[in-house]
Design brief:
150 residues, alpha/beta, D-Maltodextrin-Binding Protein, domain 2, 5-stranded mixed sheet
Length: 150
């Protein structure tokens, strides 16, 4: 693990231990696609998100490696994001990722909470993630707002 990854991991662990259970999404909460406040990423399209999250595009236009962050597979926000952006459920993507594994392509990072996603993208300028809109804080910027997960 790179030294900067250890620092990001420490920030994520501190952020999530401070507020356990604080990020239970409201039933009809919209989904915010976020980057850190200081990220060089300023815009993204739904098609661009699909390419990033399926790891077909793995480098930003400035040459930095893309870091995509997912919530856990059983999280309703992830399920809504997967259906809206990737056109498939999280369980349908298992076969896709099994196939990519043998090509040397790893799936997105999975973090256990919206607080962890916020902390990670705030600390890593090349990272993009998603959280319930109600969970957005001053450490991140919203690139796109998606309709509530159903």
């Amino acid at each position: 693990m790179r030294p900067s990854c250890l620092g990001v991991l420490a920030i994520v662990l501190l952020a999530t231990s401070a507020s356990p259970g604080a990020d239970k999404p409201a039933e009809a909460d919209a989904i915010a696609v976020i980057v850190g406040r200081d990220s060089f990423v300023t815009t993204i399209t739904r098609d661009g998100l699909r390419e990033l999250y399926l790891r077909r595009q793995r480098v930003w236009p400035n040459g930095a490696p893309v870091i995509v962050v997912n919530l856990p597979p059983d999280n309703p926000v992830r399920e809504g994001f997967s259906k809206l952006i990737l056109g498939r459920s999280s369980s349908d993507l298992v076969a896709y990722w099994n196939g990519r594994y043998f090509e040397g392509i790893r799936p997105p990072i999975v973090l256990h909470s919206a607080a962890a996603v916020r902390a990670y993208v705030a600390a890593e300028p090349a990272a993009v993630g998603y959280v319930p809109l109600s969970e957005v804080d001053d450490g991140c910027r919203v690139l796109i707002t998606l309709p509530a997960a159903r």
